[in-house]
Amino acid sequence: MESAARTYLVTGADSGLGRTVADLLAERGRVIRCGLGDGVDVRADLASAEGRARLIHEVDSLSGGRLDGIVAAAGLGAPRVETVALNHFGTVAVLDGLRRLLARSPAPAAVVVSSSSTLNRGSGALVRACLSGNEEKALGVARRLIRTRRGSQLYRSSKIALNHWVRAASVQAEWAGSGIVLNAVAPGIIGTELVLRTWDRDRQLLETALPQPLGAPGPVAPVAALLAHAVSPENRFMTGQLIYCDGGTDALVRGARPQRLFLRYRPREILALLRASRRLAGDAAAV
């Protein structure tokens, strides 16, 4: 059992996966819930700059100046520009804005909710615009995709950009250098209220696009448990990871292909490795 002294923030805590993980973390410590529905501590629309600023200000006050964990679960899936504004820019703004509160914790951690839909190719233009940090430009790309009937790409593209951001940010001095672990969890199709409401209509499309060997829709509880572990004090050495909790979709559709990528070194690093290996070989021969 975790210490009740730990304080967590969960965005999107008013429904679905966010509410489930907030309830789970409430058994382990104090939870500040953020959302737009009922039963939250902070009402803020993270698709807007004003909402992001409000959340950061109110959490600063409610937390007492320290957070131990953040679960960024707020998200939209509709083909609207707000999906990009919330999923990518809202998430990044909240994490960056509250990083200083995490840095005051003895075991700080943050995790974002991604999606197994990122296994599909998104809009490269939208991903690049998101990663540039230019929200106006990214929303312009989103509007163009909607006009050309490619709005279905907004959700996965915003999450792909978020995956890239987590990988890049997690190893920087502001995060790893402050002892803050930062990861992403990519759920598959799980039985949230929203999914179940439209399951009969969407089943054939979803099962074809994202086949899940363990069945669909999957359970919500295991994903919530994984998110809770990611922000627990036990997680002190996993960072920068994108973890698929998807009923086997990743393994099924990509097979062994992820292992085709290996470390690459610059020429001076190769020379350093050669010198070090020769030195070790010489030491071994002298024994």
TrEMBL record:
Pfam families: adh_short_C2 (PF13561). InterPro entries: NAD(P)-bd_dom_sf, SDR_fam. It comes from Agromyces soli. Keywords: Oxidoreductase. Gene3D superfamilies: NAD(P)-binding Rossmann-like Domain. Belongs to the short-chain dehydrogenases/reductases (SDR) family. This is SDR family oxidoreductase.
